[in-house]
Each structure stands twice: as structure tokens, then as C-alpha cells.
Amino acid sequence: MSANIAASVCTMCKRKKSFFFRPYSGERLCKKCFSESIEAKVRASIAKYRMFNFHDKIAVAVSGGKDSISLLHILAKMERLHPKASLVAVTVDEGIEGYRDEALAIAAANCRKLRIDHHMVSFKELYNFTLDEIVARAQRKGERELTSCAYCGVLRRRALNITARDVGADKIATAHTLDDEVQTILLNIFRGDVLRLAREKPVTDEVHPRFVRRVKPFCEIPERESALYAYIKKIKFQDAPCPYASEALRNDLRAMLNRMEENHAGTKFTVFKSIERIRPALDEIAKKAPFTECIECGEPASSDLCRACELLRQNS
Amino acid sequence: MSANIAASVCTMCKRKKSFFFRPYSGERLCKKCFSESIEAKVRASIAKYRMFNFHDKIAVAVSGGKDSISLLHILAKMERLHPKASLVAVTVDEGIEGYRDEALAIAAANCRKLRIDHHMVSFKELYNFTLDEIVARAQRKGERELTSCAYCGVLRRRALNITARDVGADKIATAHTLDDEVQTILLNIFRGDVLRLAREKPVTDEVHPRFVRRVKPFCEIPERESALYAYIKKIKFQDAPCPYASEALRNDLRAMLNRMEENHAGTKFTVFKSIERIRPALDEIAKKAPFTECIECGEPASSDLCRACELLRQNS
């Protein structure tokens, strides 16, 4: 009986009723303590990986989904304590009919509410094609190897880099969660892409003057907890999933990791930490593959033609 | 119709009927070409990782299961072409009642047939306890953290090292398959054990004069193909699984990897190769953790007390 009563009380404040159990730490938290724990974890990750300098202008990549809107709210709260830092939001309109418009409106509404400058950029204006047009064209050409995610990912990262640089941002903050990071780690191992394994990390290296460094303040927040944060804070976000099917291998890895996490709580953190422990070794690999400029667009690239121009050329 | 006929013919000899399809290569093979392909792959792995020198005395670890008996047959066949090299077999009797006796008899019969010296060593004579006794004692003490596999793995490796050294072997060859290797890679990542990730490899480093280097000629042979080889060659092996339940995390990883392999043929090879590609970096990690000698038994150890003595002490 007493164990049951104890179990229903927040293990942090020891007063309020708990509503969330964190299996990997054993904590039972009330809504307030849960939200505070998320904000504290984000601050800790930012400090640990030295994500920001005090005077940074930070471009937050805001899609309109739960993770990016939660990140925007948390960074806005932190920014008030750092008067020399500043925030802008950047939203990329990939051009996905019937899906993106709602997200754009939600992103804009949140920025207005938080009084954050909001910059929008579209695939159409940058590349002359929407994602819908690119995917339709690829399908007509019988292109089977590349998923819509492959196009979208490369072109979105490029769009973010250009826009962040244009507005004079020092860093791009993205809302990749622990789940995203661990999926990407395994995806790269399962695909044999060791260079990407080496390059993807909480703070990307300073590889080229035209490359804006990306930081991931949610890299140690499980996706489930990022969603819960948005729910508790009554943040408005887009709930509908992207109409394009995501990558098969990533889907399999996501399902597998969730099963593993259920059977062995803390698995996702352990995988993340394993890779961070071999990080110095991976950095050596990354160093040996320097960046150059794309001969077509002048953007930072790993080879003569950047991946974005390569995809757009294949598709033209 | 013609496609069906083509599909049923061996893609290697183009004459015999195929009986096996290799999804990751697209090959369809007859029994003879399949067996030859396994032997060729083992020779290729041995050459690639420089597993042996011409004059090596090789101690093959033979449990009596399909993988180790197949390895013994393949190495015996190769040895005939290398007169300066020699083979012995080493079997460890862990002391598992109703299970090990059959395997020991099978191992001995195979060695007699192949005219290979067979050395047996038991946990009882080395450690004064059988595995059954160790596990029973651990259960009585309420030890929950360690599975029987944890005891068995450490003590078996120690037994192999002592016996191989006693018979003057230069190398220990174990029959770990591609499946075992990839499971172990992920197990170490999922457990956060980066040092073991660094130390486990196709050929272990020369870490200590009392440590006999271990090589894994089957590290690029899928378990399924090692089993098929034994079946085709009509090799006698023990089929019954160990009565002790194996590690939960390894079981989960095995199931996951088999699912992934089914959906994305070649996955196991890709994971194996990813890690081999970061091998130079991992070697740097391994180098920073030198070996010393156990203060209790004098065997090579990572810390003052070796893992075997630590386990035996906990259990006494």
C-alpha cells in the first residue's frame, strides 16, 4: 500500500502527483518537474558540447512539428537570460501540397507569439522546383534508388545553410532528438557510410567559411519526451505525418530501437554514448576528407559537384 | 519459362542444378560450387587479415557444434597444402551435464577421422568447479546480474588460452561466424563497451607474451552457410542447443539482425565492414589500455585481477 502511494508522488519535488515514469532513470515526475527536467537537460547538452557562444546569432530550423516548435520555445526562454545572443527562425517550404501549408502557418504563429523574426525559404525559389515536382519527375524517370527523403534531406539542409548565412547567423539549431541521432548512427553503420557517421555529431565541425555550423540541443532528449513537453506546454504544432513514405531502413531501425528500449531501458542513450566515446577516432576520419566548393553552385561540397547539384542534375 | 530454367542452374559452374540462393550476391549454387565457395571465402579471409604464418602451430577451438567442426575440416584440408604448419584441436569441457558429453564424443570422433591431436581441458580441473556448479552457486547467492554465458565465456577463453599455450600453439582459431561477429559488435555498442568493441577483431593483437593470439577464419561466413556446409559435407556435429538460456540482449540483436538481413540482404556484411573501416581508429583506443598480469593467477589481464579470477572470487 505504502509503495503504491510513494509511486504516485513526484520523485523530484516529492509533493505533486507524478504523471510520467522515466524507465531509464527510475524517476516518476509531475508535469512541472518533467518540463523543468527537459529544459535542464537541454541546457546541459548545450554546455557539454559547447554549442553556443554568448554573442551567437542562432537560426532555429522550424518545420512546424512538435520537436522544432518545442526547441524554439526552450531556446526563446534561454535567450532572455543571454542578452548578447539572438534568435531567428528559419522555415523551409519544400513544396508538399496539402501538408506544408498548415505547418508553415503554425511555425509563423509560434514565431509571432514568441516575437522571433521568421524567415521562410522555398525549394521553388531556390531550386525552381517543389519537392512534389522533383518526386513526380523522378518517378516518371523510373528512378528507384532514391526515396523522396533522400532528395528532401539534401535540399533542405542546403536551403537552411543558404538562409542562415544570408541572415548572418552563426549557428543553425535543429531539433534532432536522441531517437533521430541513434537512428542515424545505426543507419550509417548499416549502410557502411563511415564518413557520415564521423560527420554527424552534436556540433558539426567548422569545415568551410560558407558552411554554417549545425548544433542539436535535443540530441539527448528522447523523442517521446520532446512530444510530451509540447503537450504539457500546450504548444501548437503540426501533428500530421509527411505524406511521403520515409526510408525503409530508417523505419526498420526505429522500430527495432523502440523494441530494444522497451526490453532494455536506456539502450538509446548507451548507443549514443558509445559513439561519443569513439568520437576522437571518428574526428580523425572526418579530418581526412576535407571540404571544397561545388563547381556549379559554389556551396561547400565533399567533391567537385555538391550532392544537391548532383541530385538536381539527375532530376533535370 | 526460360527464366525459370536459368534460375535453377548453378550460376558458377553453369551445369549442375542449383540448390542454394545467396540473396546478398544473387548467386544460385549447386552443392559442389557452394562448398568450394565457402572454402575459397575462408582462404580469402585468412589471407586478407593475415591470420597465419607458414610455420604456425594452430590450436582449433572445437566445441563439437556445426561451426567449429566445419572449421576443423576446412583447416585440415588447407593444412595438407602447408607442410610447415600444423593443427591441434582443443576442446573445453565446461561441465554441463547431459549436454557436453555428446559434443565431446563428436569432437573426438572428428579429430580421429582427420588424424588431428585432440586436447581436452575441463573447468573442473582448471577451476575446481564445473559450470553447472558455478551457476548453481551463483543462483543460491541470488546473483542476478551475470548470466551463465558471462561465466562460461570468460572461463572458456581463459581455458583455451592456457591449453593452447601449454601445447605450444602460435594461434587459436575459433569458429565465430559473421553472425557472431556482428552480434558482438552491436552488443558492445548497445552496452557502451567501446574497449571490447576495439579489442574484438578478426585477428587479436599481440598484447602479452602469455596471450595466444586468436583468429577467426569464419568471420565473413554467415552462420546459415556454415551450417549448410556441414550438412553438405555430411559432417557429424552436435545439434542440441546449450541448456542454459543465452544473453537476452544478444538474443534480441540476433533476431533483429536476421530480420534486417531478410529485408535488406547484405546488412550483416555491411555492419562488419563499417567497423573494419574504423578499425585504425579503434586500434588507437585499444592501444591506450595495455595488458598487465593478474596478481592472483599471473594470466594476462586488463586490471590487477583478471576477469576470470574476479568471477571465481565472487562465486566462492
Would you kindly provide a written description of the structure presented here, covering whatever features stand out?
Chain A is an alpha/beta fold and about 325 residues long. The first copy, chain A, has 2 domains: about 1-50; about 50-315, HUPs (Rossmann fold), CATH 3.40.50.620. Helices cover about 50% and strands about 10% of the residues of chain A. Chain A has 14 helices and 9 strands. Chain A has helices at about 1-5, 30-50, 65-80, 100-115, 125, 130-140, 150-165, 180-190, 195-200, 225-230, 250-265, 265-275, 280-285, 305-315; strands spanning about 20, 25-30, 55-60, 85-95, 115-120, 170-175, 215, 290-295, 300.
How is the main sheet of chain A built?
Answer: 5 strands, parallel
CATH homologous superfamily designation of the largest domain in chain A: HUPs
Give the largest interface pair and sizes.
A-B, 28 and 28 residues
CATH fold title of the largest domain in chain A: Rossmann fold
> Based on helices, strands and strand pairing, what is the structural class of chain A?
alpha/beta
The amount of helix of chain A comes to: 40-55%
How many DSSP E strands of chain A?
Answer: 9
Brief digest:
Two copies of one chain form a homodimer. Chain A is of the alpha/beta class and 316 residues long.
Summarize the helices and strands and which ones pair or pack.
The structure is a homodimer of 316-residue chains.
Chain A: H1 2-7, E1 20-22, E2 27-29, H2 31-48, E3 57-61, H3 66-79, E4 86-93, H4 100-114, E5 117-122, H5 123-127, H6 131-140, H7 148-166, E6 171-173, H8 178-191, H9 194-199, E7 213-215, H10 223-232, H11 248-263, H12 267-277, H13 279-287, E8 292-293, E9 300-301, H14 307-315
Parallel strand pairs in A: 3-4, 3-6, 4-5, 6-7
Antiparallel strand pairs in A: 1-2, 8-9
Helix pairs in contact in A: 2-10, 3-4, 3-10, 8-11, 8-12
